[in-house]
Design a protein that fits this description.
alpha/beta, 9 helices, 25% strand, elongated, membrane, DUF3557, DUF38 domain-containing protein
């Protein structure tokens, strides 16, 4: 006759079991729920909303508040999550505090979310927060290494974004679906110069250039107003998926400000970064770099000639058609 497993034996098994298998057992086997819940829950990602729970990319749809809590969080003493997206405060038991490295508070007020987060989690690696829903958000700059601020309506609330960008205490910033005008970028760089931002300070913009453009009013204004120049990143700072070509702005005696493009975003998407780097992180480039730049220049000239020729042909055709119509 097979002996039943002891409570301690069950805990040992749950400790090494696949997370999603554990959650399935928790759902369907009430008799084992106590033993399973007593083992720390370690997740790569956890999303909590009103209608569903997504744990490590597996979705569990639920019907009521009590079912949500009992199904995954109730009775647990320790939950550790690498990426936590908390979009509904009603799903977390009052006694539970979750440990995490990356927090997304959605459209919730961050002040109401923080009591559910273990204090040992701070400073976070990354915090994504709706700053329009959080009063006095400047108070929380020290809570994270990287801040991802967003607003519900950028056109109406863009001044909040500017307040963060210009605040001398702000951490590294990542902007989602927000494009900065040349005037705003010029003001930001001048602000960084005035506040002598430290080496390693970075502003990341999700909507990055495919390649950093040479010919554009945006780049021209930045280079003219801020004395910038086209340069190339040296091997000492070059990373994987980083374009060598960049724009360098003088900053101070020990550092320079560099605008460059890198493919390090979600799903390998390209992002544009403005970063304070050690002096001489950029240079004039190798012969290969200069040859590539020459090819880009020639391609641009050839493209403009084609556009000019097609425009002339189209205008000539319209003129002939018009003349024929009135004869």
């Amino acid at each position: 006759m097979t002996k039943p497993w002891t409570y301690l034996s069950l805990k040992a098994v749950f400790q090494y079991m696949d997370i999603n298998k554990r959650l399935e057992i928790n759902f369907h086997c009430p008799a084992l729920r106590s033993a399973e819940s007593s083992v720390p829950l370690n997740l790569q990602s956890l999303t909590l909303t009103k209608r569903k729970i997504v744990a490590n990319d597996v979705c569990y749809e639920v019907e009521s508040k009590s079912q949500r809590i009992k199904s995954i969080l109730d009775g647990r003493k320790e939950v550790r999550v690498e990426i936590l997206k908390l979009h509904d405060l009603g799903v977390i038991p009052e006694c539970l505090k979750i440990s995490t490295r990356n927090l997304d508070s959605g459209d919730l007020d961050l002040e109401e979310v923080l009591p559910s987060i273990n204090r040992s989690s701070f400073p976070l690696k990354e915090l994504r927060v709706n700053i329009a829903k959080t009063r006095n958000f400047e108070m929380y700059f020290g809570f994270t290494q990287i801040l991802v601020p967003f607003v519900t309506d950028y056109d109406r609330e863009k001044e909040l974004i500017r307040r963060i960008l210009y605040d001398r205490k702000s951490p590294n910033i990542v902007l989602e679906r927000v494009s900065l005008s040349s005037d705003t970028t010029v003001a930001l760089i001048q602000n960084w110069r005035d506040n002598q931002k430290e080496i390693g300070t970075v502003l990341t913009i999700q909507n990055g250039f495919r390649i950093l453009p040479i010919f554009s009013p945006y780049v021209d204004e930045l280079m003219n107003v801020l004395n910038g120049s086209i340069a190339f990143l040296n091997e000492s700072v070059l990373q994987n998926r980083m374009d060598r070509r960049c724009i360098s702005f003088p900053f101070n005696q020990t550092s320079e400000l560099v605008l460059y493009s890198i493919r390090d975003g979600p799903n390998g998407k390209r992002r544009t970064k403005l970063e304070v780097m050690p002096i001489r992180s950029t240079g004039i480039g190798t012969l290969t770099d200069l040859f590539i730049e020459l090819l880009i220049l020639l391609s641009f000239i050839f493209f403009m000639l084609i556009v000019h020729r097609l425009t002339a042909v189209a205008m000539d055709s319209i003129g002939k058609t018009t003349l024929a119509y009135f004869r």
